[in-house]
Amino acid sequence: MKATGELSDDSIHLINYDKIAEEEKFDGFFCILTSKLGYDYKKILEVYGNLWRIEESFKITKSDLQTRPIYVRTQKHIEGHMLICYTALLILRLLQYKLKDKEISVNRIKQVLNACTCVLPNDQAVMLDEIGGLLSFKEKPSTKGEMVETLTYDETKDQIRSDYQKIQKSFGVKFDYAASTREDFNKYLKQIKYRVSKK
After folding, report:
1. Percent with pLDDT over 70 in the chain
2. pLDDT band for position 25 (50/70/90)?
3. 8 Å CB contact between 149 and 165
4. Most-buried pick from 47, 112, 137, 178 (CB within 10 A)?
5. What's the pLDDT at 75?
6. What mean pLDDT, rounded, does the chain reach?
7. What is the pTM of this model?
8. Residue 181 dihedral angles phi and psi, to the nearest 5°
9. What are φ and ψ of residue 153, in 5° steps?
10. Beta carbons within 8 Å of 118's beta carbon, 6+ residues apart
11. Cα of 145 vs its chain's centroid, Å
12. What radius of gyration, in Å, describes the C-alpha atoms of the chain?
């Protein structure tokens, strides 16, 4: 009752037959509502079909890029944290786009990028550390010609190394484990360009 605020024992059940008839028109159909009036049905379906990427991007920022929890307090620091996370997501997505049919998961790209380190022993040199490298026993001929088991790097089983090479190939560059001059290394970096090919 409105006056006392108590619940009434009486209940009134009504069926809205007009609403049921209206909803029945859509039985067996999957409706997509859009505000893009200039899109034809093919474009609408294409955009809708890619929504999973947006949802996946939110998941990536929360889990892989650790957007949350945020351990900073000031507005400037929070904005800086979010900008770094967004930039990392953008780089991941650009890498995946560039890889096309050889697309690598976010987790695998993270492993490759974490493995990419270089050392600057002096002002003139740059040393790129070995990317990946899985040790395994292989039979190789010794100096005497007999087959012996030797502990060597096995590139065929090394996923990090394989992914690293796929990324390099997609950008049309190659720079393996080596020591180089800073001049050569800078030339290598300038070779890396991100171009989107028109379809």
Report:
1. 84
2. confident
3. no
4. 112
5. 92
6. 80
7. 0.57
8. -75, 160
9. -75, 135
10. 126, 127, 128, 129, 185
11. 48
12. 29
